[in-house]
Amino acid sequence: MFDPEPFEFLVRLVVVALISFFTIFALYITRRLKTSVRELDIELAERHRVEAALRESETRFRLLVEQTPGAVYQGDLGEKGQCFYVSSQIEAMLGFSVQEWLDDPSLWSKQLHPEDRAGVLAAQAHAEATCEPLDSEFRMVRRDGRVIWVYDQSVVMKGSDDRVMNQGVLMDITERKNAEESLLEVNAELSHNLKELRQRNREITLINEMAASFQTGLTIEEVYAIAKHSCARFFPGAAGTLFRVNLPQDIIEPVVHWGFSSARNNVAAFSTNDCPVLQDGQTHVAESGHPSHCPHATDGFTAPHLCIPLIAHGETLGVLSLQSEDKSDVHMTPAKQQLAHTVAETTALALANLDLRETLRQQSIRDSLTGLFNRRYLEETLEREVQRAKRGQQPVGIIMIDIDFFKEINDAYGHEAGDAALRELGGFLLAHIRQEDIACRYGGEEFILILPGATLLTTRTRAQLLRKELARLHVHYEGRPLNGLTMSFGVAVYPDHGATGQAVVRSADMALYHAKQSGRNRIEMGWSEGADPGTALNGAGR
C-alpha cells in the first residue's frame, strides 16, 4: 500500500530546496544587479565627466580659434580641394563668408593673385606628393578687389584612404609686408643717398683739384687743358666743348673739346648773335629726342645736352656745352646740371683770373698812354734778346727815336695835345714793326725799337722807312692839326756797337743826341765803345 508521507516529505523537501535555490538565486541576481547599477552609475558619471571635459575642450578650442589673428582651416589639397572647415575670421580677411568657402571648392584658387597663383599651386602639389608642411607668403585678392598679403602655415596629413588633407592658419600680413617694403624703400633711399653723398664728395674733391690746378695754370692753353681733363672726369658719359667769346671779331669759337668722335667733331666758330645762351645769359637744357637748333650741338644732336654761360665778375667769357653721347640717357639730371654749373663757374673764374693776371702783367710792362712796352720791360727783354742772338751768332738792331721840339708842342697846344701825339706815335710804331720786333717807350718823348736778327744795313733801312712814313703822319687834337711834328733817330747794332744790350743802347742814345745836335729830323749811326766819336760819326754816313 502506498504511503503518501514519504512522498510528501520528498515533495516538501524538493519544494524547500527549490525555494532555497530561487532565494539564493534571487539574492545573487539582486547582488549582481546592485553591482551593475553601481558600475553603470560609475560609467555614467565618467561619461558625463568626459563629455563635460570634451565640451570644455571644444569651448576652449573655439575660443582659441576665435581669438587667433588668422583664419583656421581644414580641407583637401589641390586646386579644386574641398574646404571642410574655416573659421569666421576668413570673412573679415577676404570678404567671403564661411559658407561661401565651404560651398565653392574653386574659390581658393580664384582669389590667388595672378602673379602668385602658379607658385602657390606648385607648392601645394609638392606638399601633396611629399606630405611636407606648407609655409609660404603670397598675395590674394579680396572680394572688393583689394590685394592683401597672407602667410599660410599648415601641416599635411594622409588618411587611411590615401586622401591627403591639410589644416593650418591663414594670416593677413599686409601691414608687415608694407612695413617691410617701406623699410626696403628707406634702405634703398639711404643707400642711394649714401651713394650720392660719396659721389658729391668725389666731385667736391675733383672740383678742389681742378681749382688748385687752375691756380698753377700760367697760360690760357694750360687752363683749357685743365678744363678738358676735369670735364672728362666729371662727365664720363658725355661729350663737350668749351667755347670762348672773341669780342674783337664778335664770334664765339671752340677752344677745347672732348668725347666727340672724329666724324662728329665739326663744331666751328659762329656769331655771338646766333648763340641763345649768350643772348639771354641763361642756361639752356634740351632733353632726349628734341633736335637741337643750337650751334653748340653737333649734327643737330638729339641726345640730352646742356649749355651754360661762363660768367665771371659780370662778364660773359664763353659757354660750356655738354651733350650725352648715349641717346638712351633720358635727361640731364639735376645733380649733373648742378655739377656742370659748378664746373662752369670755376672755369669762368679761372679764365677771368687769368685775364686779370694778364691785364696786370700788361699794365706792369706796357705804357698806359702809348700801348708800347715800358722801360722796365725793355730792361728785362734786351739782355735776353742779346743772349739769344749771341748763341745764334745773330745781330740785334736798336733804333732810338725822339720827337723833335716836343716841349714847344706842349707849350703851343697843351699837354693833352702832347699826349695825343704820343698815342698816335705809339700806334704808328706798332703798325710798322714786325711781329718779332719790340717797341718800347723809353721815357718822355723817347722810344726804342729792338729788331732781333737785323743787321746794321737792315736797321738803318728800317729807320729810313719809318722816318719817311712819319713825315706823312698827321696828328690832330680837337680837330686841329699838330703841325711840324718831326723825329730824330739814333741807330746801333749788336755786336757792332757793343758787347751788351746796355752798351748798344748807349751807342744808339749817343747817335740820337748827335742827330738832335746836328739839326734834328735825321738819322745818325752809333759807334762802338772805346771808338772816337768824331771818327765814328764822320764815317757813319747820313
Low-confidence stretches: 534-542
What is the helical fraction, as a range of percent?
Answer: 40-55%
Quaternary organisation of the protein chains: single chain
Number of extended strands: 18
Using only C-alpha atoms, the radius of gyration works out to 57 Å
Question: Number of DSSP helices?
Answer: 15
If strands are numbered along the chain, what order do they take across the biggest sheet? Answer: 8-7-6-11-10-9
Mean pLDDT: 81
Query: How far is the N terminus from the C terminus?
Result: 223 Å
Q: What is the SS-derived class?
A: alpha+beta
Shape: rod-shaped
Measured by DSSP, the beta-strand proportion falls in: 15-25%
Main β-sheet description: 6 strands, antiparallel
Question: What would you note in describing this structure?
Answer:
The protein is α+β, with helices and mostly antiparallel strands and 542 residues long. 50% of the residues lie in helices and 21% in strands. It has helices at residues 4-67, 89-94, 98-103, 107-110, 114-130, 174-216, 220-234, 276-280, 334-365, 375-392, 406-413, 415-431, 456-470, 501-517, 533-538, and strands at residues 71-76, 83-86, 134-141, 147-158, 164-172, 238-246, 251-258, 270-271, 284-286, 305-312, 315-324, 396-403, 438-443, 446-452, 476-477, 480-481, 487-494, 523-525. A six-stranded antiparallel β-sheet has the order 8-7-6-11-10-9. It has a five-stranded antiparallel β-sheet with strand order 2-1-5-4-3, sandwiched between helices. The chain has a five-stranded mixed β-sheet with strand order 13-14-12-17-18, with helices on both faces. Helix 6 (174-216) runs parallel beside helix 9, helix 7 runs antiparallel to helix 9 and helix 11 (406-413) packs across helix 12. The longest helix is centred in the first third of the chain and has 64 residues, at 4-67.
